[in-house]
Design a protein that fits this description.
Helix content: 55-70%
Strand content: under 5%
Largest sheet: 2 strands, antiparallel
Strand order of the largest sheet: 1-2
Distance between the termini: 24 Å
Shape: elongated
Number of strands: 2
Structural class: mainly alpha
Radius of gyration: 17 Å
Number of helices: 6
Number of domains: 1
CATH topology: de novo design (two linked rop proteins)
């Protein structure tokens, strides 16, 4: 966690457009997934789950709602904020919106770990849509660590990749 704090404190240099576009695409996928789950929740329907069984158990469990709000809505908000941050960075050509966006990936990744843990060890069922969201938030987190490590102004923490 100390290394992550160091990464977040470092100034960020310009990030290659390819990495930013990949981040944008992953955020769009996550936003679409979370939006679909949120809409289905408020419609009172369970989306079809063809590859794994148990979507209905996960999506109707007591863990699927926090303070009356579906967990998917918080995911939708996270992905929307990532999209706003990436667009702001692309439009302004400044790095602070991207750095702020990458910082958001930390709690989202931790939440994904928690909800995946719950599916495996508590609910004993799997929701394909929830796992897709966990995957997209994990990819965003890994990209955040990579970008912050490779494109900060000081010595990179990931030294095994050629500069």
């Amino acid at each position: 966690m100390t290394n992550l704090n160091q990464l977040l404190k470092r100034p960020l240099r310009a990030v290659p457009i390819k990495l930013t576009i990949i981040l944008l695409i992953v955020a769009v996928i996550g936003f679409a997934d979370a939006t679909y789950l949120t809409i289905e929740h408020y419609k009172g329907t369970i989306p079809p789950c063809s590859l794994v069984s148990g979507c209905e158990l996960v999506l109707t469990s007591s863990y699927s709602v926090i303070l009356g709000m579906p967990v998917s809505l918080s995911g939708m908000i996270f992905y929307f904020l990532v999209l706003v941050g990436v667009f702001a960075a692309l439009e302004s050509k400044k790095t602070w919106p991207l750095k702020w966006t990458l910082w958001l990936s930390v709690p989202a990744f931790l939440a994904s770990l928690w909800f995946t843990y719950l599916q495996i060890f508590t609910i004993h069922s799997y929701c394909l849509y929830c796992l897709a969201s966990a995957l997209t938030s994990t990819i965003i987190f890994i990209m955040a660590v990579f970008i912050l490590s490779r494109h900060s102004d000081s010595e990179p923490l990931l030294k095994y990749y050629p500069q």
